[in-house]
Design a protein that fits this description.
It is built from 4 helices and no strands. The chain is mostly helical. It has one domain. Helix 1 packs antiparallel against helix 2, helix 1 runs parallel beside helix 3 and helix 2 packs antiparallel against helix 3. The model has no long low-confidence stretch (mean pLDDT 93). The structure holds protoporphyrin IX containing FE. Protoporphyrin IX containing FE binds next to helix 2 and helix 3.
């Protein structure tokens, strides 16, 4: 229960994203949507969550270190962290897709 009542919605976000990912993955496996559509959806969500997390993070730095406060009608730290959690989970799926590509790069580096 403690895990669900934390300040940030870590577990609920991970669960919702996990279920949604599984849904679009299964739709693609059953050829209801194309695999390219499944990937487009998650690439777009990765872009949106990264942009939100990074922009809000940069606004927080500007406010904290430079006193430049841009007022937005919501709690910037809260949404920065929520977007960061979502981005982290989607980035993990993204890394899994490109795992072979990354493995080749690291193997190449180790040899030389
Ligand atoms: C461009 C990338 C990022 C920038 C520039 C950035 C910047 C910041 C800044 C300025 C703060 C406030 C620090 C403070 O209160 O002392 C902060 C807090 C935080 N950030 Fe980020 N951040 C980035 C990415 C992320 C990501 C990917 C996550 C993953 C979840 C994350 C999670 C957090 C958390 C948990 C806090 C603490 C919030 C709190 O004090 O309650 N950040 N970040």
């Amino acid at each position: 229960m403690q895990l669900l009542l934390s300040r940030y919605y870590l577990i609920p976000i991970l669960l919702v994203i996990g279920v949604l990912y599984l849904t679009t993955y299964l739709l693609a496996r059953k050829s209801i949507i194309r695999i390219s559509v499944h990937r487009k959806i998650w690439n777009l969500l990765l872009l949106i969550t990264s942009a939100a997390c990074c922009l809000l993070g940069l606004l927080l730095v500007l406010a904290m270190d430079y006193g430049i406060r841009i007022r937005l009608p919501f709690d910037m730290t809260f949404w920065h962290v929520e977007a960061g959690i979502a981005m982290g989970m989607i980035a993990a799926f993204h890394i899994c897709w490109h795992w072979r590509y990354l493995k080749v790069i690291f193997q190449y580096k180790r040899r030389y």
